[in-house]
Amino acid sequence: MASGGGDNELEVSNKQVIFKNYVSGFPKESDMYLNTNGTIKLKVPEGSNGLLVKNLHLSCDPYMCNLMKKPISSTTNSFEPGSPIFGFGVAKVVDSGNPKFKKGDLVWGKSGWEEYSLITDVQNLLKIEHTDVPLSYYTGILGMPGLTAYSGFYDVCSPKKGEYVFISAASGAVGQLVGQFAKLLGCYVVGSAGSKEKVDLLKNKFKFDEAFNYKEEPDLDAALKRYFPEGIDIYFENVGGKMLDAVLLNMKTHGRIAVCGMISQYNLEKLEGVHNLVHMIYKRVHMKAFVFSDYYHLYPKFLDLVLPHIAEGKIVYLEDIAEGLESGPAALVGLFSGLNVGKQVVLVAQE
Amino acid sequence: MASGGGDNELEVSNKQVIFKNYVSGFPKESDMYLNTNGTIKLKVPEGSNGLLVKNLHLSCDPYMCNLMKKPISSTTNSFEPGSPIFGFGVAKVVDSGNPKFKKGDLVWGKSGWEEYSLITDVQNLLKIEHTDVPLSYYTGILGMPGLTAYSGFYDVCSPKKGEYVFISAASGAVGQLVGQFAKLLGCYVVGSAGSKEKVDLLKNKFKFDEAFNYKEEPDLDAALKRYFPEGIDIYFENVGGKMLDAVLLNMKTHGRIAVCGMISQYNLEKLEGVHNLVHMIYKRVHMKAFVFSDYYHLYPKFLDLVLPHIAEGKIVYLEDIAEGLESGPAALVGLFSGLNVGKQVVLVAQE
Question: ipTM of this predicted complex?
Fold first, then answer.
């Protein structure tokens, strides 16, 4: 459906995943809908220094369910009811009002869940320079989850060779990378996940030393004592709640906890209590929450490390690709019931 | 009651506070008893490199109630049933088997709750060089609580001028010092305590900007929002539980929590749940538990800072002195019901 004036004024159809209204508890597919009636001009408005991009790959990430809730304060973000949801994605520049980008550039950063987006906040948009890897990797291993894993493990955890590392939600986009970084450094690495298939992946594909299915462990404390009889030096926290409580009983002196996420808590009406914080004192535990966006300055150093490892097959990476924007809501919601195996991506369009 | 052979073999009466048996929940006075039948030779045994000391001041500290519980693992300490309890104290060397100390030296460090102690582990015993202050100060402002406040505030919290600082159990030995350090640095300082008398002290004697009685605040979150409308940069955590939960809702981005103690949790049969840890992620909060003994290397630097401030009256310090070893059990147990005002010390003997 093209209409309008000259070439530059081309207006095309623009399918969008629209957010219906604030959610409490678990998000459902029906909290979003596909709008097929929208159109967009493939041109940056006069005077704007933004970009008009064609979205190629969209990323499904756990933090996104927090954006479905009513903002808890003026400093937190939420999706806007009636507007497309947004997240990280890989896109191609169709028109640029910004001297840093030109038509044809590939970028990754925050974009909308729609075929085309007008991006006005280009500050944290990164140009993709290395294209000898699948472009979808920039939603994962080379994008936000990659930089999250890198900065969380190397900066927050201050890891040393030989240390004992535990990762929860370990088969997710971030966890699988943290585990591989830790193995490359010479750590002992155990991961937890929520299915036999994921546990097999951790052991066989990602080469963790051990992995277990937390759903089959009635006593998480006992499970951790089995895998870490001498205790845990580093816990990479993705789930929170009961797992954190069990971990706190098993930390070694001067242990470090990098708090990356607490997916078990995001969809609860009432947050679970963590009872064993007092054990932080007995073991002088250091617990730090972080987000990758405080670490953009490390991105070039991160690429220098990870690109050769990918090329040499020393780091493997698994994606779960849902095809078509219309499959997006189901893919996103599936994250919270653990349906995806590997990094969940939505393929909107081939380049 | 002196008996025995020559002068060096002098045996004297040695009253002791004996630990009866492991406690669960709140310790009571009756969990200890005074043994008045003991004797001790005022001489270090042949071949020992320990010290025989006369105890002058003994320190009552919150962590001691943890020593009354059954050890939770092989790496935790407990008092030994049937033996004297122990803690920090100021003592005078009566006989020395160690070249680093001589008879007449004043020391502070770990000693027994008794009139005389044989100290075999002298590694963390410090010689008192500055005696132009009350010797009891070495159980508090110049001892373990002082170094705790100093290392916790300056090292763990990385404070900056103008930051917003909240201290719980603020009238205690550590809290009153942290608040004064923070004021000296130019921070805005609010403290919580459990009585009107303590709140008045915080405001009038220790010059906190504000203070409140947590027992009179049905909604701690609302109280903190009143005192910190823009949020908290630094929380010096002494209590845990509900207070921590309320604080987590009010931290600023990149806020820091120094976990010094969680006195509200020490005597509970079942630990309270902390529900708002997920807010650490939203604000990238850094929470670190620490103990002063990791910071002995900072002790000289700490003295350089604090001694002139004491001399000039820029730091004030309040003690609550119980006279006589026999008053020790009541003084110690009183800590946990908040009876003491200022640092609780037991005076065993004048120098």
Answer: 0.85
